[in-house]
Each structure stands twice: as structure tokens, then as C-alpha cells.
Amino acid sequence: MIQTFDYLTLLEPIHDEVMGAMERVLRSGRLILGAETEAFEAEFAAYVGAKHCIGVSSGTTALHLALMALGVGHGDEVITVSNTCVPTISAIELTGATPVFVDVRDEDLMIDVDGVASALTERTKCILPVHLWGQGADITRLLELAHRANLPLIEDCAQAQGTLIHGKHAGTFGIAGCFSFYPTKNLGAYGDAGAIITNDDALAQKLKRQRMYGYTRANYAEDIGMNARIAELQAAILRVKLRYLSGWLARRLQIAQRYVDDIHVEGIRTPFQHPDRVQSYHQFVIRCQQRQRVIDHLTAHEIAHGIHYPTPVHQMPPYARLVRHPLPVTERASAHILSLPVHEALTDGEVERVIQTLNSFELHTGA
Ligand SMILES: Cc1ncc(COP(=O)(O)O)c(C=O)c1O
Question: Which CATH superfamily includes the segment(s) 245-359?
């Protein structure tokens, strides 16, 4: 079976380095917020080109903390998309604020900036675009809009390690960029982890306090905070993997480019490629007119697939009450999207098999 995620094959070449890093942590006598966390924060900040990086326990806590630190709470609205993973929305809800969904553009299924403009109210406190699948959102127009409306932008980069927009890393455009290092991500920990990047000194200091109960010194809080700390073990593992990330991303890009160039079949649309963006292809998402038949065809040829995501968030029980604006593109897309295996451990032969299999798919025209 060609898998969509395969950390064991990728572990092989880095196994000794990972074990060495874990051993170093265990013998250091420091398991939380120590030298490894500090070093990873400096290295990840340098990688993305941000002034600060704050290591946290997950992508969800990264979003929750960033919103909290900006003072987003009860009575406020945060504009975002429903075409995302649930935690984008639950992080907003956890602050007490109201998520306001806007639709995505048919072209790339990223946030519709015109939709954001018409969803603004006097309660809007923040705009939260999601660079889903590693596809970059239209950050240039969003920044213009946010600037005009005097609103901060928090970027959900959970799936966008390595995504470049005008040559700059996703996450460096807004006041804060929030990353997840969930194991399947382009840069994945061996457990849960996340990070927030920012160029704002005061915000960085506040986030550091808030990830640790709001403490300014031992057992003394000056902010309301929580436990959102990254584990030293995960920071040490991420430091090893960060050194390989550029190579892995280059391989992902190569595979994605082969798919774009060579998958030509009626009823299947490959992802839109913006000339000003380098997608990091956390997922390679095609759109299929007859998705279940494509899935059956892939499965018969032992090729795994994913759907990110089969149900838009606004159609789930806790969130249906939030719908304010029609979301036709989001709803239509959720029935057609399909993620192909694109991870860096795929062999050339496997990539070829995915292409040949899809190209042999025949659309039923219903005649
Ligand atoms: C778009 C998006 N936002 C937020 C998150 C939350 O990240 P985590 O699982 O690390 O909490 C995810 C996780 O997959 C995600 O895909």
C-alpha cells in the first residue's frame, strides 16, 4: 500500500541523531523549558525569518494563546474560514469570542478577501486566515484590508511550514503565526508540539508568560495563563528534524510538480499554483467530480488517500449556530476534495504509480 504518512521510513536516516537528542535531554536533568526549547526557538525563528519563536504544546494552544494575548475574548468576533481543521475554530471559541465564517475562493479554496471585507462589524477583533494544505492564502490583500480596518492578523500556519509568499515564510506577515508540529506535519514532532512566531517584543514576552500560568517569576502570575509548554524532548527532536526540513520540502515540491505536470484526466483538477507563492504541499489536494469512484480506483490499486476535510466545520453540531454568511464554495469543495500521498519518503516508482493509476481513471458520463 502506498501510504499518505510514513514516519518510520523517514526515521531510519535520522534515527541515531534523534536517539542522541533524546538521551541528551534525559541526562540533562531538565525536562521542561530548558536549553533545547531555547535553542529550537532560536533556530525555528531563524528558519522562518521572525524575531521571536515561542514553543508551545500544540497548534491549538498556539492559536488560543495568540488570541488571548491580543485580548480577544467575550463579545469579540474573529473572521476565519470553515474550510479548515476544527481546532482553528475551537481555539477561537475557547477565548469566548465568536468565530465568523467566510467562504473560500473557488480558484484555490483559500479565504475570500472580499468575503472578509463584507463580514467586518464593529465587534471584529481579529482576522485569522488559514494556509490550509500548505497553500498560501492571499496575504497581500488581507494585509491591506487589515491595515485599513486597523485589525491584527493571526496566521494559522499549522499546515504551512515552508510555505513562501513573495519569498517570505507564511506566518511572518501578521502579528503572529501559529504552527503545529503534530507528527504528520511537514515538520512533525514525535508527539504534540507547536509554536508561535512574532516580531513584536512585548507580545513575545506576554506569550512566554501565558504559556506558563502567566508567571513572571516562580509561583507568581501577572497574566492569566495556562499550561501550554512545549516538552524538552519534543524541542530536541524538532531541532534534529529542522536540519532536514529544506531537503524534505524540496522532495515534496518535486513530487507535487510531477503530479501537476503529469496527471491529466477528465473530472480531476490538480491544485492551483499561484506564481507568487511556493506551496509546501502538506497535502496535495485534487478535486474530483466523482470522488467516491476515484477513491475506489485508488484503493483497488493499493494507494491510500485522505480527505482534508470531509465536513466543513460549520456543518458540525457545536458550530452550526455560527453560520451568518452563505458558504457555497466551502460546501461544494468538501464533497470533491481528495488528498494524494505526497510525503517525502515516496519513491519515484510510487509517484509514477499514483500518476498512472489516476490517469487510468475513467469518468462515468452517465450516458
Ligand atoms: C489548520 C490547523 N489548525 C490548527 C491545528 C491544530 O494543531 P494541533 O493538532 O497541533 O493542536 C491543526 C492540526 O492539525 C490544523 O490542521
Answer: Aspartate Aminotransferase, domain 1 (3.90.1150.10)
Nearest CA to ligand 1 atom 12: 158
User: Among 159, 181, 185, which residue has the most ligand 1 atoms within 8 Å of its CB, making it the best to mutate?
Assistant: 159
**In the numeric block, which cell numbers belong to residue 220?**
507568581
Cα–Cα distance for residue pair 161/144, rounded to 1 Å = 23
Taking phi first (over 0 means left), then psi (-120 to 50 degrees means alpha), and beta for anything else, what does residue 301 get? alpha
Helix (H) or strand (E) holding 176: strand 176-180
Place of cell 514532532: 189
Pocket test for ligand 1, best of 64, 180, 234 (most atoms within 8 A of CB): 180
With a 6 A CB cut-off, is 177 part of the ligand 1 pocket? no
* CATH top class, domain 7-103+110-240: alpha beta
Distance 204 CA to ligand 1 centre (A): 21
Q: Given ligand 1 and candidates 182, 187, 307, which is best to mutate, with the most ligand atoms within 8 Å of its CB?
A: 182
Contact present, 155 and 161 (Cβ < 8 Å)? no
**Digits of tens for pLDDT over the chain (367 positions)?**
999 999 999 999 999 999 999 999 999 999 999 999 999 999 999 999 999 999 999 999 999 999 999 999 999 999 999 999 999 999 999 999 999 999 999 999 999 999 999 999 999 999 999 999 999 999 999 999 999 999 999 999 999 999 999 999 999 999 999 999 999 999 999 999 999 999 999 999 999 999 999 999 999 999 999 999 999 999 999 999 999 999 999 999 999 999 999 999 999 999 999 999 999 999 999 999 999 999 999 999 999 999 999 999 999 999 999 999 999 999 999 999 999 999 999 999 999 999 999 999 998 877 6
Calculate how far, in angstroms, residue 180's C-alpha sits from the geometric centre of ligand 1: 6
For ligand 1, is residue 180 a contact (CB within 6 Å)?
A: yes
Phi, psi of 337 (to 5 degrees): -75, 150
Q: Where are the domains of the chain?
A: 7-103+110-240, 245-359
